[in-house]
Amino acid sequence: MAHVVMCHGIGYQYKHRETAFTDWYDALRMSMTDAALPVPAPEQVSAVFYGNCYRGLKPGKNVAVAEDEFADIPNFRSGDVRDPFEVALLEAFAQGTEEPVSGGKGLVQAALRRLERSERLGRPPEKVVIWLVRQVRRYLDPDDEVRVCAQQRFERVVTPDTRVVVAHSLGSVVAYEALCAHPEWNIDTFVTLGSPLGLGVIRDRLQSPADKAWPHVRSWVNIAAEEDPVALVKKLGPLFDERVDDRPVVNLPRRHPGRYVLGGHSVTRYLTTADLAEAVGAALLAGER
User: Fold this and answer.
1) Rounded CA separation 268/266 (Å)
2) What is the value of pTM for the model shown?
C-alpha cells in the first residue's frame, strides 16, 4: 500500500523508524498542502529505516560520556582518520565549504577545521564530522554488513503500489543501488535530496550493473541546495543521464546559537520545497492513470 517510500540519510543509528516516519511525513504533508496538492494518507507512505544497521560493530574505544546531544558519538579525533577513502571524503566535502582546502601535509586537519567552521553545515564539532564520514565509508565498504542490511530493509518496504521514492543524503545512494538492482519494481519517480552521488569517490564504489546506470524508474528528479556542501555536485544529469531533472533550491541554514544544526543539508528544508511537492504529486497522479 506504500505509494511513497522515503529513505533517510546518516545519523539515525540511535533513532527509530516510527520517529523518522513521523518527522518526514509531517514535512511532506506541509509541503503538499502548501502546493495545494492532494496529501497522501499516512498509510500510503512508508519509511526505509536502516539506522540501527550501523550498531552491529563497536564504533571505537573512546566513547563520549558528556550529557549532551552528541553523547552517543565516539570522541573521534583527526588521528582516527586513517582510511584513504575517509580522507578523500573529508577533502571532497571540505571543498564545498566557504573556504578553499589546500593539499599537502595536514590535509585531514585542514579539512576538519574548514568543516567545523562551515555555516552551511551548521558548524559541526570535529567528532560529528568524522562520524558522518565514517558512516558513508561503512555503507560503501564491501567488507561491512551495513550495505546488505540497508538493502534488505529497502526490499521489505517497497510494494507493487510504490510509485515514488524520496531519498536524502546517503539514503539517495542506498535508494539508487536498490532501484538499479530491481527492474521488477513498478516505480515512476526517484527524488534525490542533497545527494552526494555526484562525488567521484562515491560513484567509484557504487554497486550498479553498469557505469552511469539509469535506475529502473521513468523519471529522476534531483533537488540540490546551493548552500549544501554534501550535494557538492549540483547537477547529476551530466554524470548519469541527461534525463535527470536537476532542480536547484535555496536552503538557508537555520540559526540556533550553541547547537549543531545541519544547515543547508537539512532534510526538513528539502522536504518543504515546492519542487519536492510537485515531483511527488506528479508521480502519484501518473500512478492513478
Assistant:
1) 5
2) 0.85
Phi and psi at residue 212, to the nearest 5°: 55, 40
Q: Could you give the CA distance from residue 247 to residue 225 in angstroms, rounded to a whole number?
A: 9
Amino acid in the structure at residue 259: R
Which residues, other chains included, contact 68 with Cβ-Cβ below 8 Å and sequence gap of 6+?
none
Strands 217-225 and 245-249 turn out to be parallel
Query: Do the beta carbons of residue 239 and residue 261 sit within 8 Å?
Result: no
214 within 8 A of 241, measured Cβ to Cβ? yes
100 SS3 class:
coil
Query: How far apart are the C-alpha atoms of 179 and 73, rounded to whole Å?
Result: 31
Q: What percent of the chain has pLDDT over 70?
A: 73
Distance CA 134, CA 141 (A): 10
pLDDT value, residue 93: 72
CA 55 to chain centre: 18
Condensed to tens digits (0 to 9), the pLDDT of residues 197-225 reads 998 889 989 986 555 689 999 999 999 99
Q: What is the DSSP string of 241-256?
A: -TT-EEEEE--PPP--
Q: What is the chain's Cα-based Rg?
A: 18
